[in-house]
Amino acid sequence: MTEAAEADTAGDTAPGGRPAAEPKTRFAAFRHPHARRFIVSGTVAMMGDNIEHVISYWVMWQLFHSPLLAGFAVVSHWLPHLFLSVWFGGLADKYDCRRIIQIAQAAFITASLGWGVLFVAGILEPWHCCVLLVIHGLASAIWHPADQMMLYDIVGPRELPSAVRLNSTGRNLGMLLGPLVGATLLLTVGPNIGMFLNVLCFLPMLIVLIRMPFTGHTRVAAAPKVRLRLGEAFAEIARVRHNVPIMTMIVLSGSTSLLIGVALAPLMPEFAEHLGGSNAGAAYSLLMAATAAGAVLGGVLLESSRGFRPTVRVAIVATLGYGLSIIVFALSHNYVLSLAALLVGGVLNLVSSSTAQTIVQLEAPEAERGRVIGLYGMASMGLRAGSGVTIGVLGAWIGIQWAVGAAGIALGLVALAMLTVLWLKRQPAAPALAS
């Protein structure tokens, strides 16, 4: 451990490695200059991630009009999280997380440059698209565990809840701004120049990490003897299955991803036509932005509050609220009510996901924190690949509105079952933060 890290952690934890108490300072993680730079540069990189989606998806549809290729674009982004997150978490446990994140950013740059060159040359083929989409998906999966390890290393356990919330808020801000910037680039400079300009979004994080003194392991030594196997996910589940807070958060986040996940986005045009009437285009834009805007609002509200504490119960109740908001959205015939439901849902989803991520990090054994984060990522991000199938198949049977409503009901029932078990077992309300 470096001297800087030792000084930063002094008085930071209670016996057993748990934080003594969450700080009462608003936007506490931003007191750390390195945390500010890391989170802001990550926000810009996430914006670049989404700009690439907007431009590449547009060009692919214009050239090939292939629903199959569009479906592959979604699946290729999330399947690496499902199958490789724990393995990439093992890499984060073993190696310098700065270099892992730089490799991920370099992969994003490679994908953007690849798209740009093929656009300019006019030789883009479907197999090119598949290769570049897989590179992009792998970059996203590589990035996540090391990113979370760095947050813990930079701010320490006491201010980790603030760092996770701010990082999640930044990612949602990037998801909100990315489509706007991407659409602007398409309209002003076109897809060719736009994709090359997108490379600039990944450079800040590369540069920030060059001078970053934290490696992901300055508080806890790396695990050089860890065995990395493609079946590591099953071994990791076996190791943490008795940790009730971790397993609860994994099941909760996995249920959210599988039942709802990213399935609303491709269905939003139909909801816009149903709700927006003659102004379906404007309705569609606002509906698409509402959830991300709500998440940004939720992050700001939580960081402005001094009384919020991340607990298992908070995560479950927020998930229950998110399920209810999806039900209201699905069954509403009023545009303003539907928009408000998505906005509130974004706030609640941010509360649930950031709380769950914090609990997983704080409860994870130090020597395998990266793999536990990867296991959580496998559930919270990887299972999103199945959400389209879940709602799509059901939607073909009973209609899209009822299918989305049924998904919200199912998520609410999962959350209610967890709350019941928590009450029956009298599980502590704050397993991750002891007063």
Annotate the secondary structure layout.
Layout (H helix, E strand, L loop, with lengths): L2 H7 L23 H32 L2 H28 L2 H25 L4 H30 L4 H29 L1 H9 L4 H8 L21 H9 L3 H16 L4 H13 L3 H25 L7 H20 L3 H29 L5 H12 L6 H12 L1 H26 L10
Secondary-structure content class: mainly alpha
What is the overall number of helices? 17
Q: Biggest sheet: strands, sense, closure?
A: none
Number of strands: 0
**What overall geometry do the principal axes of the alpha carbons give?**
globular
* Poorly predicted sequence stretches spanning 5 or more consecutive residues: 1-21
Distance between the termini: 26 Å
Helix content: over 70%
What this model shows, in words?
With 435 residues, this protein is mostly helical. The protein is 76% helix and 0% strand. It is built from 17 helices and no strands. It has helices at residues 3-9, 33-64, 67-94, 97-121, 126-155, 160-188, 190-198, 203-210, 232-240, 244-259, 264-276, 280-304, 312-331, 335-363, 369-380, 387-398, 400-425.
Task: Write a brief caption for the model.
With 435 residues, the chain is mostly helical. The protein has 17 helices and no strands.
Keywords summarizing the entry:
globular; disordered N terminus; 435 residues; single chain; 0% strand; mainly alpha
